[in-house]
Design brief:
single chain; 159 residues; alpha+beta; Beta-clip-like
């Protein structure tokens, strides 16, 4: 008989200076440790767009090619964005895992870079407070794309 060894991380949810509530570890976490899975129902992007059309807050996580998303319903949905994160996300066979990218001290808030790549929000303002904050939760590539689109629009309107 095979046994799977699963380590359960001691995580708590409490107020966050970044945004509303955040996820914190109550014990030290070593670099490269898999901390928690991002869980919830898998739905299509179109279903999510309809479901959350008028909602200012979502806990959606794109998987695969982005046509499906996880509608977050677990502790990982409380992990906030940071431009200088202590975690990253890894997709393994359709499952999303949050993993430490450096040693994390007990009591520290867990964060990862959301690298948003779509959405109707023009700003997706970042409140992480990091010295290297880019002031947006969009990925650098998406920010550059939006700047190009805005320049083309301005040029077109100026003609």
């Amino acid at each position: 008989m095979l046994y799977s060894r699963q380590i359960v991380m001691a995580l708590i949810i409490r107020s966050s200076a970044i945004h509303a509530a955040g996820c914190y570890t109550t014990e030290p976490v070593k670099n490269r440790t898999r901390i928690v899975e991002y869980t919830g129902p898998r739905i299509t992007k179109e279903q999510a767009d309809t479901k959350y059309e008028n909602s200012p807050t979502t806990y959606l996580f794109g998987i695969g090619d982005g046509s499906k998303v996880i509608d977050g319903h677990g502790i990982a949905m409380f992990i906030n964005h940071s431009c200088d994160p202590n975690c990253e996300t890894n997709e393994v066979r359709g499952r999303i895992w949050i993993k430490a990218i450096r040693d994390i001290a007990a009591g520290e808030e867990l964060t990862y870079d959301y690298n948003l790549y779509d959405g109707d929000k023009d700003d997706a303002i970042c409140n992480c407070g990091a010295a290297v904050c880019r002031k947006s939760m969009y990925s650098p590539e998406e920010i550059a794309r939006r700047v190009r689109v805005a320049k083309r629009r301005a040029t077109k309107e100026g003609l």
